[in-house]
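Re: the 280-residue chain
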Amino acid sequence: MRRSDGGSDLRGGLWLLADMGLNVWALTIVKAWGAELPAAQLVFLRAVVGLAVISPWIWVARTRFAEARAPGLHLARVGLSTLALTCSFYAVARVPLALFTALNFTRPLVMIALAALFLGERAGPARWLAGALGLVGVVIAVDPRAELSWALLALAVTVVAGTGAVVVTRKLNDQPTVVMMAAYTAGLAVATAPLAWTGWQAVPDGAWPVLLAIGLFAQSAQVCFLQAHRLAEAGLLAVLGYASLILSTAVGYLVFGEVPGAGFWLGAVLIVGATGLARR
């Protein structure tokens, strides 16, 4: 395992904070506009802008594409990512931002089951206990008395499909980063183009810069994420990653007036604790 010094950990932590900040602001824009514009249209705009952002890198590193392999796995990754991102854009516009972030913390728990099924990774009793604890946390955070909605179902699909995309990505971990990012971003654009075209809603002139910022923020966040994991140890970043729940709760309150109840906080504590246990 690579060891990083204190300076590298600090820089890596700052890169991760930048990643979280950019992501939460991208989601804030999606939340503000997602009820008025189709989710597929927003994902398409995000992908097109992201592709424009990384196009100079693609050109400079174009010879690395000769190393590309397993097109079927790339297609599977794009399909799962498209489903996850479209559902997440639909859900975040309709559920509290803090709840959206908390339930996304369950991805490592879903990974336990998917990794056992598709990667042959064996999970011990502690990890299965973590999964059960996380499920209890989800039920409490969502509040079982609340009416089941399409947004919550979309959020569940987001977690499962997004985790599936991670499983596929792990099977492609020998691919150059530029190939992975280019295939992902271009694939999102191609996959969502038909849905965006058929369901296109007119965008007010003054809203274009804000909507295009989704792609700029999201793609820049990926760069920050990669830098963070290049500099700092994964264990430190995993702990620091929980700050995104505080950040999203603060933004939800300040921007949208969302005030989480006691049940949310209890459920969130259980989800975060279960996620930490699963990562041991």
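The longest helix spans residues 6-33.
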